[in-house]
Amino acid sequence: MCGLLAGPARAQAPVAAPAGDGATPAEPLALQPSRSLRTGSRPGASDRLPVFLDADHVSAQPDLDALAEGNAVLRRGPLQVSGDRLRYEPPTGIARANGRVEVRRGGDVFRGPELQLQLQRFEGWFLQPDYFFEVTGGGGQARRIDFIDQDRVQALDATYTSCPRDGSGDPDWLLSTDRVRMDFDSNTGVAENGVLRFKGVPILAAPRLSFPLTDARKSGWLPPLINLDSRSGAVVGVPYYWNIAPNRDMTLTPTLLTRRGVSLDTEFRYLEPGHEGRINYALLPHDQETGRSRQSLRLQQEGAPTEGRLAGLYYKTNVFRVSDDDYWKDFPRALRWVTPRLLPTDLQGERGLQDLLGTTLNADWTAYARLQRWQVVQDVDPASRIVSPYERSPQVGVRARSRLAPATGGAFSGLQFSLQTEYNRFTLSDPANAAPGALTGDRVHALADIALPLRLPGGWLTPKLMANAASYRTDQAMSDGRTSASRIIPTASVDAGLVFEREATLFDRGMRQTLEPRLLYVNTPYRDQSRLPRFDAAGKDFNDLSIFTENDFSGVDRVSDAHQLTAGGTTRWLDEQNGAEVLRLGLAQRLLFRDQRVTPAGVPFTQSVSDLLLLGSTRLWPSWTLDAALQYSPQTDRVQRSLASVRYSPGPWRTVNVTHRLTRGLSEQMELGWQWPLFGPEPSATGRPPPSAGGSCGGTWYTVGRLNYSLRDRRLTDSLAGIEYDAGCWIARVVTERLSTGRAQATTRLMLQLELVGLSRLGTNPLQALRDNIPGYRLLREPRNTGGLTGSIYD
Q: Residue 138 in contact with residue 759, Cβ under 8 Å?
């Protein structure tokens, strides 16, 4: 009680564990701020709650009425009513209050001059009240509020805003209506003759607005989407959200593109027991720029049925198709895919075979199948055309993992065995743009390995034997005239490593330093594979993961010959207080005992040592993060590839990231990303400017962006830059984005958004683009759990 009387209400933090011998002393108990002190009753209490009266003077007639005057307070469960004068009639359960009346219920607050309320039914009226809703952080005024029952409220001549109302003038934004009816049981609010004003200017009006009262979904029109596009002109869309069922919904977005015409974007989603999916379809019936119909379709679906004949099956579908080759240039943001010029049709499924095979060989058996096709979106410029990849039509296989010998309970974890065997039919979707000499045909392959891992407290040792076998039948003759061939390639390897630890000091900070050396020995005999097809083999990237693998190729068709030892080591400094990694340094290099003839570059490697890989990262200084990696060639005495990144983040909403990437002979890029306040009041821990900012244009200005510059081509490739203004109760964003669609072509888009805090966001949402492009970007205001006017589960 003393703590509550002495200051604002606070919630107690979790109790720290008591300190023991050698342990860190327990932290003292701390109180965490709370937005409000909720008055309430014990969950599950009876509806027959007692009524408490408190005042400077109380007079009563038993079982008739009670009159409280002077700082009068009435409490009943979660309801609290206070005022200068309060009368309560027990026979009717009616309370009447006058003079500075205040009602608190579940964090919501109502204030006004006069109230009449039937407590049990929560039925009555409130004259000229001000109100505040905790869930949205906003409130307003009304001529009268009628409490119909526990779940229904009606307000006449009501307003709503989240801006401060200090009497100095109108709030920056204000929603006013003739009548608002709220039904909390059905989660529905209806406003009649609603007008939304910003800076006194009406920006949205409707004779009837329907909206949800919580973050639950509700059918209705969403705020319009507006942006400017260099290829499509002004783009205005008005989405309609249809809440079909609790597990199904659809969003229809009629859109006007001033240069192209009218389009319709459709998104349908569903969620069933064991299944879920999404269908996106966009249709532009007549493009005024091209004179033809434009459309795109994306289907995503996955599931794992638990009942019926399909129980135990996992399947996944991903289909993405567009109507023409220029779609990715004209609508770049519509193709949200890793490779917008290579669109998949990917159907796959797998099922465990334990119910059929039991514990055969004590193994976990899985059968799988896949159908993979591609739509290659080409360019009229020959220099920009891409190579058509192989399709799998189909891919069928079985894989198994087994422990042939049980674990002994000591260092040995048992003899482990794995097998994968599958059939593939490889075809080409666009033979005219395939790689020179590309073949089509069938392949059957088997990959097997057996290992005996040894695990120790300070290290490990894993000897392994592997085999890669493949048989081919091609539709065209190979370079030696054959149409069929087979081969099998064995590999033996030993992977070993140790972990040492010691106490250390780094810049006067207590640390725990590790030293982790690692060796990988690989022996693979040479087999001539130059005449065989190369359906899915590709050289691996040279990094700290690939250098400790047995094969320099991904896929099946190529196996690099090797008689080599990879040696490397990592040392890490860990903060003794919290275990965080402060500094990491590593290096790795291969020693070759004979020439390597099967290489990703196609040229035999005759040097005795490979390139040297150096890695480093540090978070030694609280606001700085440094990461670097480089590939150094002893033969040319030059750095072949490098990556260096520096991030400075001294606090929330302050981050600058600079990255340099170099691949000698191919590309060199500089990348700059940032989010930084320009000027204005210092944001608080929640990012919100002082309350007065909303009415005086004294908010905080932020600049955000990311620039990607090609040093080799001396041009800016992709860029994103904008301004954010946080006025406290509203946020404005202006962001421009430029996406390269060729060496001399680009698409530029201007995105405008007005976020009314506690209500909705109007315009085109650039937040996803900011999060995707700016490392460390943080929202100026975390979204509240309220649906506002949007009624959608999307931003």
A: yes
Nearest residue to 190 via CA among 160, 212, 173, 175: 212
Q: Is 239 exposed, middle or buried (0-12, 13-18, 19+ CB in 10 A)?
A: buried
Any domain includes 100: yes
User: 185 in a domain, yes or no?
Assistant: yes
**Contacts for 124-131: CB closer than 8 Å, 24+ residues apart:** 124/94, 126/101, 130/165
β-strand pairing of 715-726 with 730-742? antiparallel
End-to-end CA distance of the chain: 42
CB 144 within 8 A of CB 128: yes
Average pLDDT, the chain: 84
Q: Answer yes or no: is 165 within a domain.
A: yes
* Distance, CA of 453 to CA of 566 (rounded, Å): 19
What whole-number distance in Å separates Cα of residue 265 and Cα of residue 594?
Answer: 60
Instruction: Count up the domains in the chain and report the number.
Output: 1
- Paired with 146 in beta bridges are 125, 154
Q: What is the pTM of this model?
A: 0.77
Cα distances (Å, whole numbers) of residue 295 to 233, 269, 301, 323, 666: 18, 19, 20, 5, 36
Domain with 149 in it? 59-213
Identify which of 540, 436, 513 has the alpha carbon closest to the alpha carbon of residue 479.
436
Residue 451 carries which side chain, given as an amino acid letter? A
Q: State which amino acid sits at residue 370.
A: R
Q: What's the pLDDT tens digit per position in 481-518? A: 999 999 999 999 999 999 999 998 888 888 899 999 99
Whichever domain contains 188, its CATH number is 2.60.450.10
**Looking at the domain assignment, is residue 366 inside a domain?**
no
Q: Among 30-34, 73-77, 356-360, 471-475, which is the least confidently predicted range?
A: 30-34
Neighbours of 89 (CB within 10 A): 15
